[in-house]
Amino acid sequence: MNNEINIKTLIVKNPLKLDCGKTIKNYPIAYETYGSLNKKKDNAILIFHALTGDQFVSGVNPITNKDGWWSYAVGPNKSIDTNKYFVICSNVIGGCMGSYGPSHKDPNTQKNFGTNFPIITINDMVNAQNNLLDHFGIDKLFSVVGGSMGGMQVLQFVSNFPNKTKTAVPIACTSSHSAQNIALNELGRQAIAADNNWNQGDYVSKNTNPNKGLAVARMAAHITYLSKKGLQEKFGRKLQEREDLKFSFDADFQIESYLRYQGSIFVDRFDANSYLYITRAMDYFDLTRKFNGNLSNAFKGTKTKFFVISFTSDWLYPTQENKDIVIALNSIGADVGFAEIESDKGHDSFLLDVPDFLNVLKNFLEKSYVEN
Amino acid sequence: MNNEINIKTLIVKNPLKLDCGKTIKNYPIAYETYGSLNKKKDNAILIFHALTGDQFVSGVNPITNKDGWWSYAVGPNKSIDTNKYFVICSNVIGGCMGSYGPSHKDPNTQKNFGTNFPIITINDMVNAQNNLLDHFGIDKLFSVVGGSMGGMQVLQFVSNFPNKTKTAVPIACTSSHSAQNIALNELGRQAIAADNNWNQGDYVSKNTNPNKGLAVARMAAHITYLSKKGLQEKFGRKLQEREDLKFSFDADFQIESYLRYQGSIFVDRFDANSYLYITRAMDYFDLTRKFNGNLSNAFKGTKTKFFVISFTSDWLYPTQENKDIVIALNSIGADVGFAEIESDKGHDSFLLDVPDFLNVLKNFLEKSYVEN
Lengths: 372, 372
Fold this sequence. Notes:
2 copies of one chain form a homodimer.
Chain A: E1 9-12, E2 16-17, E3 23-24, E4 27-34, E5 44-48, E6 74-75, E7 80-81, E8 86-90, H1 122-129, H2 131-135, E9 141-147, H3 149-160, E10 165-171, H4 179-193, H5 211-225, H6 228-234, H7 254-266, H8 272-284, E11 305-311, H9 319-330, E12 335-341, H10 355-370
Parallel strand pairs in A: 5-8, 5-9, 6-7, 9-10, 10-11, 11-12
Antiparallel strand pairs in A: 1-4, 2-3, 4-8
């Protein structure tokens, strides 16, 4: 689907040894930029996307023709002000928007990788994206910012490169995927695997498409992105274009119709195998693992100035898990601010028009930038 | 699968006009009893089961050869003491353990009903089960008790028959299915419908079985029955019989293995179409609907003594929704007690060995029975 659209791609020549033990080289990273890099090259912000995001943060996504996934936060005069900052965002490896992933061809077999693609971790994603800094000649970023899985990458980035960014903003995330998080991702993977058209991941050569399973996975995830209260306020028991119940299995309720729609549009823009790989990376994420369970040690020696943001109604990565990051940073005397934003919009709050959040983000960056 | 097992069945001759407008008659209700009905016939408790329950409350379920679903609460000297009370429980209509449901033959076509079975409501379930009282010559029950969808039936029973039970114990339930509840049930239905073997519900004649879809539906539901904290304490990030991550899509984590197992054993005992029908009944449940949104009016004139029970970590039917029932009953001066039980076991608490809950239930019933 990318044939006629110009997707900026960096071919990374440096070999990257993945956590699984395999090494990749000459692999593509698809990226997009917004704004201009200044002469001092000290105004760059690397944004990390979440599970189903991509490099098209702002403006119109040329693939979907819809607004970029973070248009509320990124653009001229917005929180991440592209008049001021140079914004870079790349598709994660394992993804399906141009970066190296399971829908690419295996050079050994000339067939699509499918599930023969190596398992990717958050650490691998971050190490791959670090090559973009060299590409742009950036020694030190002004900031790394991301929500959800993007926030995990923020944490991993600072842990891997303690002095390669002046500031870091992990949003609505966790330092270690919980049992419930893993359970929900496994549910999505099982929904895909249950689709006979998945064919053990080899659906391209079989000319099938596990769209039904992928849609179910998306519906499951979508429910977790919204809060019970938010769903009740938005949908409640409102009926879908009907006066009364139909006594059938049609979508009587607006919430049913909404979920079905979310599932159906998702499969047009996302690859089922990428969904498996990226959820796997999230489940494998436990930043404390290499540090004997001590999160503070993951950030030892960093001079990076952190700002952690959580949302009251986010039950996927609740405030406490975000606070745990703050506590770990405080305990080594790192520079860290924290804001819990009041919102009924659940985990999705970071993607939506939540003014308190957008203001907090803008102010932290501006204050830190002036201090530059 | 019921060929060689004696399932007690009442054939209900009285026609029942369903909420959907259709009328059923000469339909089977499969039931089980425990303990003995006393001479005054005033010691009977009607237990209503939840989504995937059945009539085999206690002892060994002859179909699954496992303990009955409420063995912790029901039996000799237990909370619902079968030395004292006569317990009746029947499979709901729409179910798959002998009562009239989608796996029965349509007399008009001699084919399995499948999705040609009429849509069932909680009201229909309760009205059907009421026939058991006449069958046993019971004018007035000592109690109606149930958790989750069983609790909804408790509420509906008292609303329909305000003076046919002395006491009523709705547990971990709601008077109106929320948008999130509907969303989660719709997810399960879509998982089943996504399975090509479902064949629009006509899988029996096609000799297929939508077990993969049904297993995914069960996994989704199972996650909602447990609390985030409970999952973390029980599973956390523990690995499944391995020292380290395998970098594959196998079940690395115990929680993954557990979920897959729950899905796999469920399909042996449950019918996919019944899952559709019963979740639909739950979603249609809104006791306030006939009463202009006023829940109190649903209970007007009842002399029934209520005891409402909720659990702190139940996020599916949280305490507030149970309290709303208490408030509605209080506002018409009905006799109502309430207990919120501290438990990390989530919605499933009512099915598990939660001593505070079991004691509260036992004490309420005993105190009310002495007063008889």
